[in-house]
Design a protein that fits this description.
GO terms for molecular function: 5-methyltetrahydropteroyltriglutamate-homocysteine S-methyltransferase activity; zinc ion binding. Pathway: Amino-acid biosynthesis; L-methionine biosynthesis via de novo pathway; L-methionine from L-homocysteine (MetE route): step 1/1. Catalyzes the transfer of a methyl group from 5-methyltetrahydrofolate to homocysteine resulting in methionine formation. About 40% of the residues lie in helices and about 10% in strands. It has an 8-stranded parallel beta sheet. Strands 19-20-21-22-23 form a 5-stranded parallel beta sheet. α2 packs antiparallel against α3 (about 85-105). The relative contact order is 0.08. Residues about 1-50 have low confidence and may be disordered. It binds methionine (MET) and zinc ion (ZN).
C-alpha cells in the first residue's frame, strides 16, 4: 500500500519548484544573478590572507555511526515511519557529522555530501533530469526521488529504477543519469542551499559540494528514445549550475567544491573541450571554485585545467603522488592547491612522514597560504569510526584509521606543516611507531608464505593437458547428458538458516548441533535437486554468511569489523573484511561440507569456492604490498583447497570470480597488466588438478563483453555467466568461447518465473552461437536471495525445457 497520503506535501527538503511557482525575482539569468561585487582576483587575495594550512574533508560517510540513515530510510519505505521522521533523522545525522569533523579539528567541512540514496541521483533530481516514467505518478517529491533509485511496484504504479553503475573503481554504486533533447534542465530542488543554511544555523560554515557538469554528463546516458550525446547538452546544463552557485553565494557560501573525478579517466575530446566554456561560465557565478579530481592520475588531462577560472584545484596524491608534479606547474599565481594526502578509500593509518613531505613540497612551491591539506576523495568509502571495534587486537587496531580518525589525521598534518613538527610531536611519534610496528609485524611478512610465492613457477599456471583432452577425460567419469543442467551454488537462505548460524556464532548452540543442522540442510537441498532432475549438484552453501567473509574467516591474514559498514548503494551497506597480513590457509575450508554432500548422492557434486580477485576486491586490501602479491597469496591458499577437494573425491569444482571485471583499472593502458596477474591468480588456484577434474568458473554483476578474451584465458573447462538480464546481449561473443559455457537462463533477482516455452526459446537462441556439445544450462547466479516456491518452479521449468531440447537436438 502506498503511504503517500500520510505525507504533508509542503515539506520542502526535496522541494520541486514548478516553472510557474518560481518567483520572478528569483529567476536568474546567466551571469547576472547576484553579481559578486569583487572581481575574482580580488576575492582570491582577500581569501589568501585567511587561508593558512587549512585541513579539509571532501565529503563524509552518510549512513550514520550505527547505520541510522539506512534504518530510517528502510523504515520509511516499509511505511513504519513518516516522511517527517525520516527528514528529522537525516537532519540530526548531518548536524552530528559536521560537528564531529569540526571537533576532530577539520577546518573545511563539506555540505551537500549527504544523500538519501545517491549523490549522483541527487543531481539528476535537482537538475530536473527526471525521466518521464517517474513523473505524474501522484507521488510526493521524496517518493519520486526514491522511485528513481529503487523503482516502485504497487497496484497502480510499476516503474523500474534507473540503471545502477559502479562509481569509478570503488564499491559504491550510483544511479546513472538519463537525459534527452527534451530534458528541461532547471533547478528543481534547493538541497545544497538548504543544507548550507542548516549547517550555518548550527554555527558551521561549510563548503558545499556539487558534482561537476562534465562528470554529470559524461556519466549520463541518453534515454531510450533519444539519440542525443549527453555532452551536447552542456550549454543547457551550465546555466543551472550558475543559478545554483548564485543561490549558494547569496546564502553566504564563499567556496564551492565542484567534483570532476572523470579527469582521471581516458576522456573523449568533446568532454575535454567542455571544461573551458563550462568553467568560464561557472567562474562568473561569484563563488571561489575548488575543482576537485580524485581516484587516480590526471596525466594529460591536466592540460584542460590550465587557465580555468577556478580558485583552487584538488588532486588525489594517495592514488597518484605524481599528480603533485603535474598540477604545481599549471597553477596560476593565485590559485590554491588542495593536496589529497589522506586516503578516502582505505582504512590504513596515514603515514604522516610521507604525507607531510608531499604537503611541504607543495608549500615550498606555493606558500602556506595556497595549500590545503585534504582527504584524497570523499571519505564516503570508509567506515564511520574505529571506536566500535572493540574486538580487534590492539596491536592491529593501531594500524587503522576510519573516517572519524582520518579527520583527526588531517588536522595533525596541517598543524605539523603550519607550526612545525614540534607542535604535534607526540602525534607524529605515535604515528611513526604505529607505521613501524606494522612494517615489522610478523603477520605482514610471513616467511612460509613469501617462500612459497618465490617458488611459484610458470608451470604451476598450466593444466596438464589442453581442453579437448581434459573434457574427454572428464566425460568418461561424469557421463553427463547433452546440455548438462546445474545451479551456481547457493540455495535459498531461509530465516531458519540465518537464525541458526547466528546462534552458533554467538555460542548459543554447540558445534555438533550446528553441524547436524547444516548436514540436514545439505541433504534436503541435494534431495531437492535430485527430484528436480538436475545433473551436476551443489551443496547449497547454507554454512556461508557471505561468499568472501566465509573464506576470509578461515584464512590467516584477515580481520573483521563489528560495525565497519560502508555504503554500497542506496540503503545497502557492506562490511568488507580487511586484509592485514600475508594470507595462508591453515586447514581445509569447504571439504567437510562438499564431502558430506557427495556422500548423499550418486550424481556429481560441485565444490564451491570464491576465487582470488573477488576475495581481494570485496575486502579492504593492504597498501603495503601490491594487489598482485595479495592475489597470489590468496590463490596459493585456494590452490590447496582445490586440491583437497579433488583428493576428497569432488570431481567438479567451481571457482567464482564475479569481481574480475570490476577490478579493471580506470585507464585502459593499465588493463593488460592487471588482467595478466588476475588471470594468473585464477590459473594458479585451479591448474594443479588432474585432467579428470572439471573446473568451472562463474561471472556475474558486470558486462563481460570487453574482457571476454580474458575469460577465455582462464582456461576453465566450463564457465557460467550472467546473461538473462542483458537481453542475451552476450550472444555475439559467445561463439568465440572455446570451452563449455552456461549463459544464465533466468534472472535470479526477480521473483518472476519464466514459462517452459521461454526457457526453450532461450536455449534455441543460444544454440545459434554455441555448439550443442558445449552448452550448459543454469541460472544467472546463486539462488540465496530467492524464496523456495519460485526456485522450485524456475528450476523445474528450466529442466523441462532442457529435456525438450535434448529430444530435438540429440
Ligand atoms: C555473486 S556470485 C555468487 C556465487 C555463489 N556461488 C552463489 O551461488 O551464491
Ligand atoms: Zn553470481
Amino acid at each position: 500500500m502506498s503511504c503517500d497520503r500520510f505525507f504533508s506535501r509542503d515539506l520542502s527538503y526535496l522541494y520541486i519548484k514548478t516553472a510557474r511557482a518560481s518567483h520572478p525575482s528569483e529567476s536568474p539569468s546567466l551571469g547576472v544573478f547576484r553579481p559578486n561585487p569583487l572581481p575574482l582576483s580580488q576575492n582570491l587575495s582577500r581569501l589568501s590572507k585567511k587561508l593558512n594550512m587549512q585541513s579539509s574533508v571532501l565529503g563524509f560517510p552518510r549512513i550514520g555511526k550505527n547505520r541510522e540513515l539506512k534504518k530510517a530510510t528502510e523504515a520509511y519505505w516499509s511505511g513504519k515511519i513518516k516522511q517527517e521522521e525520516l527528514l528529522a533523522t537525516a537532519k540530526a545525522i548531518r548536524a552530528e557529522h559536521w560537528k564531529l569533523q569540526k571537533a576532530q579539528g577539520v577546518d573545511i567541512v563539506a555540505s551537500n555530501d549527504f544523500s538519501f540514496y545517491d549523490h549522483v541521483m541527487d543531481h539528476s533530481f535537482m537538475f530536473n533530469a527526471i525521466p518521464t516514467r517517474y513523473q505524474n505518478l501522484g507521488l510526493s517529491p521524496l517518493d519520486v526521488y526514491f522511485a528513481m533509485g529503487r523503482g516502485r511496484q504497487e497496484a497502480t504504479v510499476d516503474v523500474p529504477s534507473q540503471e545502477m553503475v559502479k562509481w569509478f573503481d570503488s564499491n559504491y554504486h550510483f544511479m546513472r543519469p538519463e537525459v534527452s533533447d527534451s530534458t528541461d534542465f532547471k533547478l528543481n530542488s534547493t538541497k545544497p542551499v538548504d543544507e548550507f543554511n542548516e549547517a550555518k544555523a548550527a554555527g558551521i560554515n561549510t563548503r558545499p559540494v556539487l558534482l561537476g557538469p562534465l562528470t554529470f554528463l559524461h556519466l549520463a546516458k541518453a534515454t531510450k528514445d533519444s539519440k542525443v550525446k549527453p555532452i551536447a547538452l552542456l550549454s543547457k546544463l551550465v546555466p543551472v549550475y550558475v543559478e545554483l552557485i548564485g543561490k549558494l553565494v547569496a546564502a553566504g557560501a564563499e567556496w564551492i567544491q565542484v567534483d570532476e573525478p572523470i579527469l582521471v579517466l581516458d576522456l573523449p575530446t568533446e568532454i575535454l573541450e567542455g571544461f573551458k566554456p563550462a568553467y568560464e561560465a561557472i567562474g562568473k557565478a561569484g563563488a571561489k571554485i575548488m575543482l576537485a579530481t580524485y581516484f587516480g592520475a590526471l596525466k594529460n588531462n591536466v592540460e584542460v585545467l590550465k587557465g580555468l577560472p577556478v580558485a583552487g584545484i584538488h588532486a588525489d596524491l594517495v592514488r597518484s603522488p605524481q599528480n603533485l608534479d603535474a598540477v604545481l606547474p599549471i597553477l596560476s599565481k593565485e590559485q590554491v592547491f588542495s593536496a589529497g594526502v589522506v586516503s578516502g578509500r582505505n582504512i590504513w593509518k596515514t603515514n604522516f612522514q610521507k604525507a607531510i613531505a608531499l604537503v611541504e613540497k607543495a608549500v615550498a612551491a606555493l606558500g602556506k597560504e595556497r595549500v590545503i591539506v585534504a582527504s584524497s576523495s570523499s571519505i564516503l568509502h570508509i567506515p564511520h569510526t574505529l571506536e566500535s571495534e572493540t574486538q580487534i587486537k590492539p596491536e592491529i587496531k593501531r594500524w587503522f584509521a576510519f573516517a572519524t580518525e582520518k579527520c583527526a589525521e588531517l588536522a595533525v598534518i596541517a598543524k605539523a606543516v603550519k607550526e612545525g613538527p614540534a607542535a604535534v610531536r607526540a602525534e607524529l611519534d605515535a604515528n611513526a611507531a604505529d607505521v613501524k610496528a606494522r612494517a615489522e609485524s610478523p603477520i605482514t611478512n610471513v616467511k612460509a608464505v613469501r617462500d612459497r610465492q618465490a617458488a611459484v613457477t610458470p608451470a604451476m599456471h598450466e593444466r596438464a593437458a589442453p581442453f579437448e583432452t581434459r573434457i574427454a577425460a572428464q566425460q568418461e567419469i561424469l557421463k553427463l547428458p547433452l546440455f548438462p543442467t546445474t545451479t551456481i551454488g547457493s540455495f535459498p537462505q531461509t530465516k531458519e538458516i540465518r537464525v541458526t548460524r547466528n546462534k552458533f556464532t554467538k555460542g548459543l548452540i554447540t558445534e555438533a548441533d550446528y553441524q547436524t543442522f547444516i548436514e540436514k540442510e545439505i541433504k534436503s537441498v541435494v534431495d531437492f535437486q535430485e527430484e528436480v532432475g538436475l545433473d551436476v549438484l551443489v551443496h547449497g552453501e547454507p554454512e556461508r554468511n557471505d561468499m568472501v567473509q566465509y573464506f576470509g574467516e578461515q584464512m590467516e591474514g584477515f580481520v573483521f569489523t563489528l560495525n565497519g559498514w560502508v555504503q554500497s548503494y542506496g540503503s545497502r551497506c557492506v562490511r568488507p573484511p580487511i586484509i592485514v597480513g600475508d594470507v595462508s590457509r591453515p586447514a581445509p575450508m569447504t571439504v567437510k561440507e562438499s564431502k558430506y554432500a557427495q556422500s548423499v548422492t550418486k550424481k556429481p557434486m560441485k565444490g564451491m569456492l570464491t576465487a582470488p580477485i573477488t576475495i581481494l576486491r570485496w575486502s579492504f586490501p593492504r597498501d603495503d604490498v601490491s594487489d598482485s602479491v595479495q592475489a597470489q597469496q590468496i590463490a596459493l591458499a585456494l590452490r590447496d583447497e582445490v586440491q583437497d577437494l579433488e583428493a576428497a573425491g569432488i570431481r567438479v569444482i567451481q571457482c567464482d570470480e564475479p569481481a574480475l571485471r570490476e577490478g579493471l583499472p580506470l585507464r585502459t593502458e593499465d588493463w593488460a597488466e592487471y588482467l595478466k596477474w588476475a588471470i594468473d591468480a585464477f590459473r594458479l588456484m585451479t591448474a594443479g588438478v588432474k585432467n579428470e577434474t572439471q573446473i568451472h568458473s562463474h561471472f556475474c554483476y558486470s558486462d563481460f563483453n570487453d574482457i571476454f578474451d580474458s575469460i577465455l584465458r582462464l582456461d576453465a573447462d566450463v564457465i557460467s555467466i550472467e546473461n538473462s538480464k542483458s537481453d542475451m546481449k552476450l550472444n555475439n561473443v559467445l561463439s568465440q568461447y572455446t570451452s563449455c559455457i552456461g549463459p544464465g537462463l533466468f534472472d535470479i533477482h526477480s521473483p518472476r518465473v519464466p514459462p517452459v516455452t521461454e526457457f526453450k526459446e532461450r536455449i534455441d537462441a543460444l544454440l545459434k552461437h554455441i555448439p550443442k556439445e558445449r552448452l550448459w544450462i543454469n541460472p544467472d547466479c546463486g539462488l540465496k536471495t530467492r524464496a523456495w516456491p519460485e526456485t522450485k518452479a524456475d528450476l523445474e521449468n528450466m529442466v523441462a525445457a532442457t529435456r525438450q531440447a535434448r529430444e530435438q537436438y540429440a
